[in-house]
Amino acid sequence: MSERWVTLAALAALLALPLWALAADEPFTITLATRAAILALAATGLNIALGTGGLVSLGHAAFFGIGGYAMGILASHAQTFAPLSLGPWEVPGTQSMPVIWLVAIAASALAALAIGALSLRTAGVYFIMITLAFGQMFFYFATSWRAYGGEDGLSIWVRNGFPGLNTLVPIQFFGLCFAVLLLAMLLHGRLIRAPFGLALDAARQAPARVLAVGLSPYRLQLAAFVLSGAITGLAGALYADLNRFVSPAMLSWQMSGELIVLVILGGVGRLAGPLIGAGLFVALEHWLGGATEYWHAWLGAILLAIVLFARGGIVGLLTGQGDRRG
């Protein structure tokens, strides 16, 4: 089976599950599918940096959490009718999803630009550790930010709105998240085949040769890192809207680790890798989590088997191809 057909099959399965749940009157199953779509979106953002750019980041939860807090702060001010003070300016809160998404993307992209500009001056394990350090800085800042809940987090009373939709209806909110995921996957697919994506892949494999032809590996990787952070931040805003709650846990290193696990399970650098990895993760969490609190042990065993025997992830197994990333 080709990777294209695997991608289409994975998208069809994700779409069919909530439609079946709607017919069977199982709203919780729709919520699980929505969670899988949002986590797949976050992992798609990471896959741009990790799979295409070869940047192993343990700080992507910072962008995920920034997107979540952008939603939480704007929505909380809209609900209390108290304007948000930005120095000499006062900005009203909002519960409009398109506006919140723009703010989440902009804030996450700016954070990724600052973090990437410093982190990309290092490489290897040093890059991993400095991204982890930045992620923990944001985590402890959110923990001590008492104006927005501190370590207890921030609750939102009503889900934000999108023009023409009732986002409180589970199937409609799923459709919105699925559409955003589809757009992100299309962007990633075009990016891989575009000149920028080819140059980024070359910078991962042979940076000296890329430099020799007049391109800057640093700028290519920084642009990929910023795009990756922006998409992950958008996923964070959707995730906070799904739960109507945002907390420092969204910024923790465990969240960064989970996103990497999703990419590895599905296949690093594979277009459908984040989607399949997120689907498997949510399914294991739901089915095994209800049977035992040690369900992570089974996840660890599956991850170990993939790392040892299926370097291309689940997509690699389905397509019969090895690890394209070496």
From TrEMBL:
CDD domains the record matches: TM_PBP1_LivM_like
GO cellular component: plasma membrane
UniProt-annotated location(s): Cell membrane
Entry's transmembrane regions: 33-51, 58-78, 98-118, 125-148, 168-187, 222-240, 260-284, 296-318
Topology class, membrane: Multi-pass membrane protein
Signal peptide from the UniProt entry: 1-23
Keywords carried by this UniProt record: Cell membrane, Membrane, Signal, Transmembrane, Transmembrane helix
Entry-linked Pfam families: BPD_transp_2 (PF02653)
Domain of life, source organism: Bacteria
Keyword Cell membrane carried by entry: yes
Main location: membrane
GO MF, one annotated term: branched-chain amino acid transmembrane transporter activity
InterPro entries to which the protein is assigned, alphabetical: ABC_transp_permease, LivM-like
Protein name stated in the entry: Amino acid/amide ABC transporter membrane protein 2, HAAT family
Taxonomic source organism: Wenxinia marina DSM 24838
